[in-house]
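Team,

Forwarding the record for the chain on the shared tracking sheet. I've put the sequence and predicted structure together so nobody has to dig through attachments.
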Amino acid sequence: MPSIIACFKWVIDEAYIRRGPSGDLDFSSVDYKIGEYDRNAIEEAARLKEDLGGKAIAVTVGMPEATKGVKDALSRGTDEAYFIADSSFGNLDSSQTALILAEVIRTRIEQYDIILCGEGSSDLYAQQVGPRLAEQLGIPCISFVQKLSITKHQLVAERRVEEGIEVITAPLPALVTVLPDINVPRIPGVKDTLMAGKKPTVKITRDELPPFGGPLLRTISLTASRIERSCERFGTDTAEIARFVGSLRKKGVIG
């Protein structure tokens, strides 16, 4: 029976971000959520566990305030969680996140068959944590997977590439980054949320990890995007279309 790890990140819910009067972004009323792509990774871990037996483990690196995210991950079908938290983890880059995850997986979890990551995080979307984590652990990595199955001691994955669909097999253990097409994440019910509070969570602080340096990312400024509309009207006849195209060329919108 496989042991499946799902990595996730607790991120700002963009629906709550507002545009300030001077064009800056207002985060004063934001809420947080598990990243959209990471929900697919958690869901796939839960489905594989339900089909094959075994255990699904949720793992996250983040700020101490992300306890709600850990409970959310547990309510989505995982059996236990590893919560690696420190107040300095708000500005980690992909290489640091992968390094921390690898250390915990290697020394605390030890036995695993498959690691699932989202295609990218909902905030930075660097798409690097999964491949970097696989490199740190010395295991195969298959990215952009839209269908996954496990047979005996290997996995079979369909991954989307520019030319079409590749079908790849890899020995276990292996790491997979999943596309949103792989599943539809479940919505936890009241019973799931209540049961999540009874599932085990291993909390790990920075003091329990080897030295890895300070945060590498620093936000200098954030500015909201703007859409300017000219509200120019045009008809459907040839002359009106030609006039409108000419207006766009004068403004440099088209060549």
